[in-house]
Amino acid sequence: MSEAFPRRDGRLHAENVPIEQIVEAAGTPVFIYSASELDARYDALDAAFSAVPHTLCYAIKANMNLAVVNRLVTRGCGIDVTSGGELFRAQLAGGDPSQFVYSGVGKTDAEIDHALDAGIRMFNIESREELRVIDARAAERGVVAPVSFRVNPDVDPQTHPYISTGLSNSKFGIPIAEAVDAYAEAKALEHVHVVGVSCHIGSQIVNLDPIVDALQRVRSLVTELRDAGHSIELLDVGGGLGIVYDREQPPSAAEYGAAVISSVGDLGCHLIAEPGRWIAGNSGIFVTRVLYGKDNGDKHFTVVDGAMTDLIRPTLYQAYQRIEPVGPPRENTRVVDVVGPVCESADFLAQQRELPILERDDLIAVHSAGAYGFVMSSNYNGRCRAAEVLVEGDQFEIVRARDRFEDLIRGESIPEGLG
Fold first, then answer.
1. Quick one: which of 388, 342, 343 has its CA closest to 369?
2. Active-site residue (options: 57, 77, 199, 343)
3. Percentage of the chain surpassing pLDDT 70?
């Protein structure tokens, strides 16, 4: 049983608040986040790296709600951004750009300029052409850009192929075999300054062996680069530590920190880690209401008001996320598909799942929905995106209002001068 989402008197709570109380105020579907769990997970990882100089840069792509991000930066967290919009959000949430790292394979000129003007800590460069563009943009502004290369160690992270980023066929990073030449090119440029090395091999990693393997390869590269005259001050070890969705047994924060430190902690680098899912994932749930039951012969469906437009992981990754009733569970069970209203056969939250018998207006909670939930939602089928709620103790606040119909057409117009 989760400390963030306990069951008391038979009913599911978010910290000390009954879920039904939140739903009465916010409606359904709704994402609910535990502030105390966010704090606890950040603190655990921070403590795991306490033996070495380090910065945790929260991967804002996991959950970019301003209240969530503000909660973390207030505790001293840096941010890993991958777009101009994420940089804008991180700044608006109170983050310090000098503690931001900027990753991503497709940085536009405007995004590079924004990051240079903000004064970020480091660009994680993902191609040699990008290096030349950053040098040119920095020259135009009369500044020097701090950079590292994201190196690709060709290590299999043993996770879903869509979130594997460190293999040789990945779009991310430069091959580690080309790194020495790439760093030599960077050293010859006037408006970039090499400060570090970066490596990130994937997401939802539940085995430390691939991480250790990758870091051993990066360790050798750091030594070679220093021998070539590069001052490698920062080492970005990436993120990707997995969480529990079903029966996974991922390493603890302490085990992860110990593995990283034993691999590269003696290099004298300031370590940067980029946790995202690990902080936010189990800090949130998605609550949806049962609309109908439907039987097609031997096939049983539970139709809910949440959909793939709200939580796409089950559809996109064939992901399992635990589901339970908010109210007291009924003894009788049934194998059902939990499906949404969207006009796609792929619109499901669970398939062939044994659940207590559910009735119209029952509430169900989908766990481990704090990361890659709302951030990947859409308005497909003209659906209004869900509300988001932050809970602390016996208090809660709606931190993002549910979309209104007017939000669906913001920015659109019917042309008057055409045709």
1. 388
2. 343
3. 96
pLDDT above 90: percentage of residues in the chain = 85
Query: What is the model's pTM?
Result: 0.94
Q: Among 230, 133, 125, 126, which Cα is nearest to 191's?
A: 133
Ordered domains of the chain (ranges, CATH): 7-33+282-408 (2.40.37.10), 35-280 (3.20.20.10)
Phi, psi of 270, deg, nearest 5:
-80, 120
Q: Which token pair is 368?
A: 């481990």
Residue 392 CA, chain-centre distance (Å), reads 21
Q: Flag whether pLDDT at 310 surpasses 90.
A: yes
Cα–Cα dist 402/388, whole Å:
8
Structure tokens, 413: 């117009």
* 384: annotated active-site residue: no
Under the banding of pLDDT at 50, 70 and 90, the label for residue 53 is very high
Question: Which candidate, 234, 258, 268, 221, places its Cα nearest to that of 57?
Answer: 234
Q: How far apart are CA 16 and CA 164, in angstroms?
A: 37
Report d(CA 173, CA 187) in Å as an integer: 18
pLDDT at 165 over 50: no
H or E, element range at 128: helix 128-141
